[in-house]
Amino acid sequence: MLPKLQNQVLLSRLLTRSGDQAWDFALPVTLVLLFPQQLGLIAALFLANKIGQFLFQPALTGVVDRWRRSHTAYLGTALQLVSVLGAAACLFSLSTKSIAASPNALSFQDWTLIAGITAASVTSALGSGLMEIAVGSDWIPTLVRAEELAQVNSRMKQIDLATEVLSPVLAGLLLGMSSPAKPLWGFSLVVLWNAVSFVPEIFLLRSVFKRSQALQALPSGLSERTTSLLEKTRKGWNNFWQHSASLVMIAYAFLWLSALSPHGVLLTSFLKGGWQLSEFALGIFRGAGAVFGLLATLCFPPVVRRFGVVKGSLVFISLQAVAVLTALPFFYFRTLDGFIFLTLILFSRIGLYGFSMGEMEIRQRSIAPGQRGEINGVATALTSFATLIHYGAGTLVGEQAQFVWMVALSVVAVCCGAATYYLWYKRIGRSHL
Asked: What CATH number should be reported for the domain whose range is 241-433?
């Protein structure tokens, strides 16, 4: 890929991720402001997002295989823009009357507006997922030579990590500009940030599309006609199971069952409520998690050059499995007041992020252009389903003392992911790419 085209795609990625991360942070915080006694609304919103992705993402992302690439980018951007503006309109309507509402004081109109926010949130997640698959899993492997994929994927992951850390901070500063007289002033600035960012993003992608003959080629599934959402979904799942790299994507989905993440809600809640860690210590731990993720992006290209993407990915997921497995007894006995456990969790991030980049490259290189939307959509649905199970299991852990079972489940999930990938590596992987 030409350097200028590559930089334009990466810049569009930066705009997409920064806006997504800021929105994902600002929306639940603003809902807490409006409904401080109804935290269940936040949980319901999150669950609706994941259920919506699981049910509809495979069918929606099928347009990647049937539409012109420029039209797919327009659709993904439009879905995000409309959802942000729609959710904002509902929130502004609620703010005029419901900020002090008790749990039983919500009217039918209030619940209708809340349903509108939920629908907008699901639409935003679907649009974001469509853009992730369209650009990351279709545009990039179309533009980039196979030997350059590791480097480009590493840079994309660096962008993801940077926005994961910086966007919530900037969004928090904007939200802090609100006042009792104008409680949604800061939220309005976040909405404006998102709305404005879509303009240069779509112009960048449009410029790349116009300058690339490869992207202008019609998708192989352009003439295909499927009649219903159910048929599209069924076809996507069938193609997924028949694909030679399906076990790789299943292995990655197993990793989403783990609660051992420095920025995960469940582990953070336990460390605060169970181990009584200070906010400062939690902030250091979360920041260190991002730093170790960054180390993975620096390690990934040389590891791939040394071992190849297939064997290199095995190295990374094995590192994660060994780290969390070793961390389990240190958690149980809280050796050195939990320091060793937390350190091992940080080291496991190198394996996780390294494997995630390898898994992405395997998908990029092995999924044919006419199936990228369908199969990648199913892979996204699988990770959403794993997240649902993850949080469902978390609700069963009613006491802090029982969190050890959540840690044990996480270790088992990571080891299952490593075993699944090793099985694929032994049977297919060594001769796959």
From this structure: 1.20.1250.20
pLDDT tens track for 104-143:
566 778 788 888 988 998 899 899 889 988 888 888 888 8
The model's pTM is 0.83
Our measurement of the distance from residue 326's CA atom to the centroid of its chain's CA atoms, rounded to an integer in Å, reads 27
Within 10 A of 330 (CB to CB), how many other CB atoms are there?
Answer: 18
More confident position, 246 or 172: 246
Q: Which CATH architecture has domain 1-217?
A: Up-down Bundle (1.20)
Q: Which of 327, 312, 332 is nearest to 414 (CA)?
A: 327
pLDDT tens by residue, 386-395 = 988 887 777 6
Identical fold, 1-217 and 241-433: yes
Positive or negative, the CA dihedral 202, 207, 212, 216 is positive
- HEC string of the chain equals CCHHHHHHHHHHHHHHHHHHHHHHHHHHHHHHHHCCCCCHHHHHHHHHHHHHHHHHHHHHHHHHHCCCHHHHHHHHHHHHHHHHHHHHHHHHHHHCCCCCCCCCCCCHHHHHHHHHHHHHHHHHHHHHHHHHHHHHHHHHHHHCCHHHHHHHHHHHHHHHHHHHHHHHHHHHHHHCCCCCCCCCHHHHHHHHHHHHHHHHHHHHHHHHHHHCHHHHCCCCCCCCCCCCHHHHHHHHHHHHHHCCCHHHHHHHHHHCCCCCCCCCHHHHHHHHHCCCCCHHHHHHHHHHHHHHHHHHHHHHHHHHHHHCHHHHHHHHHHHHHHHHHHHHHHHHHCHHHHHHHHHHHHHHHHHHHHHHHHHHHHHHHHCCHHHHHHHHHHHHHHHHHHHHHHHHHHHHCCCHHHHHHHHHHHHHHHHHHHHHHHHHHHHCHHHCC
Q: Residue 157 above 80 pLDDT?
A: yes
Other Cβ atoms less than 10 A from the Cβ of 400: the count is 15
Q: What does the alpha-carbon distance between residue 125 and residue 123 come to, in Å, rounded to a whole number? A: 5
Residue 320 in contact with residue 261, Cβ under 8 Å?
no
State the Cα angle at 255 between 253 and 259, rounded to 5°.
125
Domain boundaries, the chain: 1-217, 241-433
Whether residue 366 contacts residue 431, with contact meaning beta carbons closer than 8 Å, is answered with: no
CA dihedral 279, 283, 284, 290 (to 10 degrees): 160
